[in-house]
Write a structure and sequence with these properties.
The structure is a homodimer.
Chain A: E1 2-5, E2 12-14, H1 18-22, E3 25-33, H2 40-53, H3 60-71, E4 76-84, E5 100-107, E6 119-123, H4 143-149, E7 159-163, E8 169-172, E9 176-181, E10 184-188, H5 198-205, E11 214-217, H6 221-225, E12 229-234, E13 238-245, H7 257-270
Parallel strand pairs in A: 6-7, 6-13, 10-11
Antiparallel strand pairs in A: 1-5, 3-4, 4-5, 7-8, 9-10, 9-12, 12-13
């Protein structure tokens, strides 16, 4: 790991940082490919939007410069940007916020899923709370994901799917979810909970390799069982086709035409690796 | 502020701390009175219980020693204990957790409420999400409280009350709530959301100055309007009787016999200051 905190190469923050004290902040995790962050515009847009929602007056130009500086040294890596509401007095009240920017770079992830075979995933017991006022944001309050990820230790299980407290299927612990049935693509609506991922937005807006409409709506567990394809997205891994869901009877499921088409397009357009 | 991090007098933590990255941790805020923490046993019990729920193998004896060391220098102060899941790799998964203990001491709070007159409070727009798997815990995911507290800037408003997403009245941003009607005391059930405060537990279990049963159940906003007394509790302030709720017609409300009786008992038994 190599990091800049407010542009300075240090690797600590003061204990009174409001990110540590209350999770008052947000983050982005970006793939670096050939010294660039191909999806940077989407990450920057989400940072700005989230900062506004959390009352953090973020200098996106400074983040941009720091992200470029670190990314520029790597052919394949992961860049994490974490922004907090900075130093604060004790107590929930924040005034005169001076944000703190923490930009760090990590090795590219070890590929754990062979995309030709597809991922094995599971369903988590942990549910996502319904909280429309924070829905979609990649904020620092991530205990639900931490506890969901702690439910399994089997390295052959790549991801855990999460429902909300009302039983709707929402997302993976670190990925967004797409289903295909009879050639139609569906992804869960995230207006009540969930993280509106950058790769999800890329699929919805840029439609790489996609030639059918994508429905955004509530999704049930039963739809998962009846899907022809299921795939998971995030801005670091790109796409994981799902081959198997533990303890569910998803007989029709296999890595399919639509996931392959998107992977090919993400590779051609942005250089996202499509297999091990 | 003076602080110990894992027993060492430093005031920074590494940026890869899971408390900062994901809010994977918890905290306690304790009143120090005459070089001691009178409610220590309750704080320590909650720390242990929360650590277990968050898969953090906490050494409570070490926290105890550090808390005593810092408290022992102060006649009136606030001690904050923050425990995180410590250093982690990137990603939600945590294994082989080595917790990090951050113990810091602050000046006693400036009294903002004259307990003879009572506090003015308001209702927050921000709602609490229903999340039974985290309910009651004083974990580090506190964005709901941060955003609720950001709703007002008027120093004459001491606290904001919060409902859950289903409209039940639950707590204040930093306090628990009690209502009195016709001599009966009620406090909201916290099995779906909310922080089970130490002072709330003191009232429920030690019953200082209390000679009637306390009901713990769901509470409606209408009950707030019809209350004879309303008071707020936390482990630093003790009790604030509520005199007025902005924009609500709570005609009967006044600082009353029961709140006064509890304040007197908390002062006699633990030394909690009862007025300015």
């Amino acid at each position: 790991m190599h990091a800049l905190v407010d542009g300075t190469p240090v690797e600590t923050v003061p204990i009174d940082d409001r990110g540590l004290q209350y999770g008052h902040g947000m983050f982005e995790t970006c793939r670096v490919i050939n010294e660039r962050i191909p999806l940077w515009q989407f990450h920057a847009a989400r940072l700005s939007a989230t900062a506004a929602r959390l009352h953090i007056p973020l200098d996106v130009a400074a983040v941009d410069a720091e992200a470029r500086a670190l990314a520029g040294k790597h052919s394949d890596a992961v860049l994490k940007i974490l922004v907090t509401a900075g130093q604060g007095r004790r107590g929930y009240r924040s005034d005169a916020v001076t944000p703190r920017r923490i930009v760090s770079v990590f090795s590219a992830p070890v590929e754990t899923v062979d995309r030709n075979i597809g991922a094995t995933v599971r369903l988590c017991q942990m549910r996502l709370a319904v909280q429309p006022m924070l829905a979609g944001l990649k904020h620092l309050n991530r205990l639900e994901q931490v506890l969901a990820r702690a439910e399994w230790n089997d390295a052959s299980v790549a991801e855990g799917l999460m429902c909300d407290v009302d039983g709707r299927l929402v997302e993976g612990t670190m990925t967004n979810l797409f289903l295909v049935r009879d050639g139609r693509i569906v992804t869960p609506d995230l207006s009540r909970c969930g993280v509106a991922g950058v790769m999800r937005r890329v699929l919805l807006e840029l439609r790489p390799g996609i030639d059918t409409p994508i429905e955004m709506r509530d999704v049930t567990l039963e739809e998962l069982d009846e899907a022809d394809e299921c795939f998971l997205t995030n801005a670091v891994i790109g796409i994981w086709p799902v081959a198997r869901i533990l303890d569910r009877d998803s007989a029709r499921l296999r890595p399919g035409r639509i996931a392959r088409s998107i992977m090919n397009a993400l590779e051609a357009r942005f250089g996202f690796p499509r297999s091990q």
